[in-house]
What we know:
Helices cover 40% and strands 12% of the residues of chain A. Chain A is an alpha/beta fold. Chain A is built from ten helices and seven strands. In chain A, the strands form two sheets. In chain A, strands 1-2-3-7-6 form a five-stranded parallel beta sheet, with helices on both faces. Chain A has a two-stranded antiparallel ribbon with strand order 4-5. Chain B has helices spanning 13-27, 39-42, 45-50, 62-72, 85-88, 93-101, 130-135, 148-160, 206-219, 237-247, 262-273, 293-299, 304-316; strands at residues 10-12, 31-35, 55-57, 78-84, 108-112, 141-143, 165-168, 173-175, 190-193, 198-202, 224-228, 231-233, 250-257, 278-283. Chain B has two domains: 11-175, Thiamin diphosphate (ThDP)-binding fold, Pyr/PP domains (Rossmann fold), CATH 3.40.50.970; 190-316, Rossmann fold. By secondary structure, chain B is an alpha/beta fold. At the A-B interface, helix 5 and helix 6 of A face helix 4 and helix 6 of B.
Amino acid sequence: MKKTDLVQTTKNIRKALLMMNHRSNASHSGSALSIVELLTVLYFKYLNVDPENPKDPKRDKFILSKGHASSGLYATLAERGFFDKSYLDRFYVDNGILPGHIDFEAAPGLESAAGSLGHGLSVGMGMAIAAKYQKLKSRVVVMISDGELNEGSIWEPLLLAPHLKLDNLTVIVDYNKIQSFGITNEVINLEPLNEKLKAFNWHVIEINGHDMKEIEQALNAKTSQPKIIIAHTIKGKGVSYMENKLEWHYRSPNKELLDQAYGEIDN
Amino acid sequence: MSAKFPFTEKKDTRSGFGAGLLELGKKNPNVVALCADLTGSLKMDAFEKEFPDRFFQIGIAEANMMGIAAGLTIGGKIPFTGTFANFSTGRVYDQIRQSIAYSGKNVKICASHAGITLGEDGATHQILEDIGLMKMLPGMVVINPCDYNQTKAATLAIADYVGPVYLRFGRPSVPIFTPADQKFEIGKAIVMNEGKDVSIFATGHLVWKALMAVEELEAMGINAEVINIHTIKPLDNAAVLKSAMKTKCIVTAEEHQMNGGLGDSIAQLLSREYPTPIEMVAVKDSFGESGTPDQLMVKYGLDTSDIIKAVQKVIKRKMV
């Protein structure tokens, strides 16, 4: 896919997820907007996945451990053709298809339940071990949030994956600097994060998480250790009134704000 | 030992699990095992030695172990996790809930050192709430076999069942009184002794204690039925109701809190379908303590004499 098309894809995903959150009065728009470029590169440039055969054993697997950003993943999977875009109308509603937090059986392309934080990396490790055991080339990517690094259960797999030399496992930290009710490094200071992860024997790459070229390069970097990409992102990216604003972790846009956001994204 | 109910020898139920797991390793290439640094305690060392590429040492990181087990199911593998009952349930409840139960993953959570018979290590490790925790999870099967042979048979059987299972066993040596070649049927209660005056539903090694009560009760002129409920969920409703309708009074016996245990499941069923007087031999809203297993079983009211007292009490309550 050409760069211009990729940019258009990010616009489509942003608008779709905002519409979903507007229509259902759902929260976490900011958490989903920060990962749109990451999801776009993953699903349109990197992951070996096939919407026609979503359960192919040889596929790559992606787990969104920060399950509250589900609207971003659902919009991306629909854009990639895993399911009809009409599914997105059935997000976060009575008798819907797509739940607020992720049920992996809700729609094709979802790999793991997520919502309660600090689980996805362990599950992804299990999948990476399974791929090695079955001698499959299948790769596993797990995206966690910066706030999720507060969870002790994240540090168990962070300790074990390099010990098991799982070079088919990549972790992306969506470092958008804001969590539920505070600035991440004011709630618990993660820094120096890069050095911490290096000391755990991870191959650490720091990038601008909105630069799709940097994202692609980082994903494709060959390493003998498991890899962790610290993606510096902006919460609410692409919508001026949401960017770096704590309240957009939970707020949902009304019609007027939605129209304004659409205008900004299309320009 | 009694004349009516002989036992061959005493052995720990965890060794039944270890033997079953080793046999599964030979029979079923999809079976893999994970352990949180308690390989010797769980008797998983034989499997580890025989199948090193199918054994995963996770370290003292139980939350990670449950998540990895969930992920490992992806290509049709059947992960068996092993650690103490306390760390298999309460410590990792959210991991089991979201990544295993809600996700319907085919993980077998195998838990040793359950209950107060863990003994001297004390209350921190003596979980008496695990059956309740696990049976509340939708879709979770909960199994608590009575002796070495039954634990081995159950270990083999759960590999053939698709879905999450909690298998509970223990540390101390207890009598072996069920056949070595038994076929274990999940959810199928076993009548150990037929009787007409009272039904004793027991689980785990309390089944033996219930059988020991039978002869003393016989001497008092009470003809007791003993039923082995090795599967607490799904409960064998038909077997419970059939016996209740015959004897019209019930005693339950288990090494678990009264809240959330086998007695609780049976009372729930009977109150809906066939209200019957019931007495429960179980731990009464208390933590355990450090001590020898036998002494603790007496102190916490879980011994044969406690079953007998409960029978005498419930028979008096029988509606005639």
